[in-house]
Amino acid sequence: MILILKADTTKSDIADLKNRLEARGLRPVIMEGAEKVAVGIIGETRSHLPADQIQALPYVETIRRVSDPYKLANRVFHPEDTVVDAGGALTGGGNFSLMAGPCSIESREQIVEVAKAVKAAGATMLRGGAFKPRTSPYDFQGLRGEGLKLMLEAKRETGLPIVTEIMSIDHLPLFEDVDMIQVGARSMQNFEMLKELGKTKKPILLKRGLSATIKELLMAAEYIMASGNDQIVLCERGIRTYETATRNTLDLSAIAVLHERTHLPVVIDPSHATGVARYVPSMAAAAAAAGCDGLMIEVHNNPAAALCDGPQSITPDEFVKVVRTVKAVRAAVSSANAIQAKPISVEQVIRACAS
Prior knowledge:
The protein is of the alpha/beta class.
């Protein structure tokens, strides 16, 4: 439910409303506009807040019901884009993040070499797996705690903030110096973990489950936000369909849908989505054109020898080309949007062509 307050509503009126709502076990979210104030209400309003009682308050102008089950993640309650700050790397609200690094941390030499290479190419964050969820119990499971230590060493060497996956809330103490905690696709609906991560103030990268709907992804984010943490980046990493030519099917339409429904930033992982290194550059460019807030790309200095996901990892040299292309695409889209927003004269076109 959202309440639109009258233009002459005072601060004491707003305080009175907050007290009334909190007394009923509801959480008010104050949204101040240029002319009026709106109040979003989180909680069970149908049974705890009869519409006729709230409409009778002298400062309430109109009442609007919100049918979506996610409230805190809903753009209706939070019209402005959320900007997530992970160790100085910003995502959302016009800030574009480039997260790059190996699928799995294998050695000090490997992670430091890749970290230096991706930073030189323009990466804003270093990604890498210390704890690896694998379909087979016989596959490489990651270096675990030792891998985290090596990743932190790469952070000290390069200054890049780091993002890495957590698989158990019991491991949370090990993530104290991690800048952004990743919740993998297989853990998206580990609700007890989401609740605990919500009690932290660390930025969370929430990956969409293999077969999850957009609504289910937003409800997972709601779990984290309901526990107090609104620093969440959503990640589309491909969903399972009947197609077998790629590892998953990259849902680029999710960018537009999520931007319409939520204020949380959206990044794309073309590596896991396609599972094929040669498809990564074109899908990264397509995601940038579609308006994503960042990319997460697997980069390995020797993909053929990688212990995990080598076929979908690009080399540092290839990453340089991807970054160059993505920047060009974003610049072109920005220019096109500017032209559409502000009509230009024939004289301006002539001068632009002459230059």
